[in-house]
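dumping this here so i dont lose it again. seq + smiles for 2-acetamido-2-deoxy-beta-D-glucopyranose
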Amino acid sequence: MSNLGSLLLCSFSLFVAAGAFKAPSLPLREPLVPVRRGETAPNQALFFDMPLDHFGNATGMYKNRYWINDTYYKPGGPIFLFDSGEQDAEPLLPYYLQEYHGLSATMRLAKRYNGVAILWEHRYYGDSLPFPANENTTAEQWQFLTTDQALEDVVYFAKRFSLPSAGPGPFDNASGPSSEVRNNPLHPSNTPWIWLGGSYPGVRGALLRVRNPETIFAVWASSAPVHAQIDMAAYYKAAERSLKRNCSADWVAVTRFVDATLANGTATQAVDLKVKLLRAREDGVTREQAANTSDVDAAEILMDPLDFYQYYGFKDSVLPFCNVVETQNFTALPTETGLAASFGIDVALNAFLAGIKQVNYAAIPGTEPARGRAFSWMWQYCSEYGFYERGDPNDPLSIETSFRSLELYQEQCNMAFPQGLPSAPAVEHVNKYGGWNMTPSNVLFTNGEFDPWRTMGLASIESNSPQRTPSVAIPACNVAPTFPSFFGLTHDNMVHVSDLRVLLTPDANHTEFKTVGFYSPISQEPFYAGLGLFQLALDDWLPCFSAAKLGVSTSHRVEGTSFKELTMAL
Ligand SMILES: *[C@@H]1O[C@H](CO)[C@@H](O)[C@H](O)[C@H]1NC(C)=O
Ligand SMILES: *[C@@H]1O[C@H](CO)[C@@H](O)[C@H](O)[C@H]1NC(C)=O
Ligand SMILES: *[C@@H]1O[C@H](CO)[C@@H](O)[C@H](O)[C@H]1NC(C)=O
Ligand SMILES: *[C@@H]1O[C@H](CO)[C@@H](O)[C@H](O)[C@H]1NC(C)=O
Ligand SMILES: *[C@@H]1O[C@H](CO)[C@@H](O)[C@H](O)[C@H]1NC(C)=O
Ligand SMILES: *[C@@H]1O[C@H](CO)[C@@H](O)[C@H](O)[C@H]1NC(C)=O
Ligand SMILES: *[C@@H]1O[C@H](CO)[C@@H](O)[C@H](O)[C@H]1NC(C)=O
Ligand SMILES: *[C@@H]1O[C@H](CO)[C@@H](O)[C@H](O)[C@H]1NC(C)=O
Ligand SMILES: *[C@@H]1O[C@H](CO)[C@@H](O)[C@H](O)[C@H]1NC(C)=O
């Protein structure tokens, strides 16, 4: 994945400096273009004193950043926490907590249910840094970046959060804000905490509902790869499935040819080919530079057209490329079986490289690397998640170079973190919550039909997955749907987090992926389908929270309207 790829790739300058190949990447997330200061309502970040180590003996605290928007809040309303996951959360603020560019699901829900909206930043990202997260971070420092520590952060926070505007209330306690106070009206035993997250944050929501159902009452997990697996050759299956036959045949043929030439050709043949490959991306690359480029870096250029697949899907990101290739840049009619079969590999290779040059994937904006994030997420996948998007030479439809092997991923991990890593990612730290087999209650799982990450989610159709079936029938509150069914919706033709992304007002400037980079294009349909279904579920589930409260203890009961009434308010 070299471009969305190079997001992560570029940032690993330590490898380049070391003369080594660049790291393969895991593009889970799109960067947002920051909104200029002064264009949005002021919303000061807040900082929460967080213990560094929730489980061990290490002492120390750090400041964890978050933001709130209580514009719509009325006492008794729920909390909607939008988790930003593995990135600096600040650029998300105007989009997700302020609707700078149109609707956000979090703010729509806050409005409908009179709730408080929170944007939460994950430890080791943005300004929520126990330690600087960079190439100098030590194993002793990285050890506190684990799934469980980061989940416990939110549990710890939820039990101590109160609105700054409320001031020190009657629930406050001389021991200070960091102690848990159960008669705080916003404590999760008094107020439902509802989680929204897409991608890794969706995973976190689902895990929390298994791990801490007493703290997180309901979850919308969008495109959540809840099953951690080291070998993720499946990543490109979605793209492979959506390719037309001729383009698929050529992609496979060209990939095989490049792999074979670089592996088994003469040195001259290999360098000649590298020159061609590199010049498809950038004019004027010298022979020396080409000779200096590793096989994987050169072969990965064939995957450039896939960099945007996760966010734009086939039609917008890959089809334009295939059209250039199959028509040889619009100079000939496409054939049914493809160019390699009809005219030979040289014609196919040249057309393929012309396609990369013509679409100019490298010029697409919005691909600035985020340094800290790259290291932190790399630590997370090297230590726990795996998701090594390797090329599988045994897959006859593989369009990924086999130079991207499991061994290469592991080498990259070991090189970046010479100490502190297990010998292979400890996926059991994630899968102990159920993985593909999890059956949490009060969770909506949405997916995109062609999202590469669907393969690791509950809607996976991979042969080694349980192949569960989503159902839009709303399960009873606090009752797990019966396996293999789960409460969810798979959006036709959609890709990664198509629904929970910010909804931009469609306009001429925000429809072409080549001009807007990662900034926007989103269909309104999945947004409203996902939001609508989650609202229907909350309408059912929230009264159950109030009812449970009534049964438990009246003294902790929240004053004011019931959720049923709040629901009617809109
Ligand atoms: C924490 O303290 C306990 C009890 O003193 C000890 O058994 C354990 O090994 C310590 N854990 C770490 C990580 O130091
Ligand atoms: C809260 O959200 C509303 C609606 O999205 C927005 O207009 C407002 O600017 C936000 N306020 C703050 C302080 O972020
Ligand atoms: C890491 O340490 C090296 C050597 O001390 C230093 O030159 C470099 O600036 C440090 N990097 C960061 C991001 O602090
Ligand atoms: C105040 O907090 C302390 C420490 O957590 C606790 O022991 C005590 O019971 C609390 N007092 C009240 C009135 O909540
Ligand atoms: C290189 O040649 C060897 C021996 O014939 C073969 O096993 C291997 O698959 C070839 N490599 C590639 C990438 O084609
Ligand atoms: C190629 O690599 C060598 C050895 O690492 C280095 O000295 C040289 O500057 C590199 N050349 C280019 C053009 O990058
Ligand atoms: C061949 O390629 C063209 C251009 O991408 C496409 O429109 C057509 O559907 C393809 N035909 C087959 C049989 O794959
Ligand atoms: C493709 O065709 C266009 C229009 O004729 C031309 O401007 C462009 O240079 C061609 N691209 C390549 C990579 O050959
Ligand atoms: C945005 O769209 C308008 C027309 O709707 C156009 O005039 C303007 O040039 C576009 N801006 C950019 C940066 O493309």
